Amino acid sequence: MSKVGLRQVLRVLVVLALLYFGFFMVHSYLSPAAARLIAPLRWQYIWTRALVLWVETLIPISASAVMIAYSLFIRVEPGGREEPFHALVSPHLVMFTVLALIFTVLYIGVLPSARRALERSEFSSAQADFYLERARSARQDRNYNDAVADFDRYLVRDPHNQEITDEREEVHTLLLDSEAGEGVAPETGDLPQPLKAGEYFARAEAFYSQEDYFSAHYYAVLASRLDNSRQDARRLAARAWEKVTGLERSQADEAARALFRTKKEGYEALVRAQDFLKAYYIFNDLANTYPDDPDVARYLEESGRQVAEISYFLDEAEQAEGAPGIGEILFVNVKQDTRREIVYIDNLVETEQGVFVTGVEVIQFEAGGGIELHLAAAHGKLLPRLDEQQGSTIVLTGLDRYDPERRERPMYFEGDPRRLAASERFENLLPVNLSREDLAVMRLGMPAADRLGLSDLWQLRRRCGQFGYPGAELACEILDRILHPFSFLILCLFSVSLGWSFRVGNSRSPRLGFIFLPFFPLGAAVLTALYLAAQKTILEFILGILGFGSALAVLLVVQGLLLFVALTLLAGQRTD
Amino acid sequence: MLESFAVKDLLRMLLVFVALFVLVNILFTVLGLLGVLGDVYAAKTEPLLSGVIARIPHILLERLPLALCATLLLLLARSGVHPGRSLPAFVLVGAASFFTLVFAFPLLEATIPAGMETSDRVYTSALAPGYWHSDNGRAYYVESIEDGRFSSLLVVTPDEKQARFRYFAAGEAEGPLVTASGPGSTDRSGGPSELSAFTPERFTAQLEHDLRLLRQELSRAYLISRPRYLLACFAVVSAFMAAVFLMRLSRWPLLNLFLSFLALRGVFYQFRLLREVVSEELATLISRESVTANLPFLVLLVFSGLLLLLHLLFLPARRGPGGAAI
Question: Is A72 near chain B, with CB under 8 Å?
Answer without folding.
Answer: yes
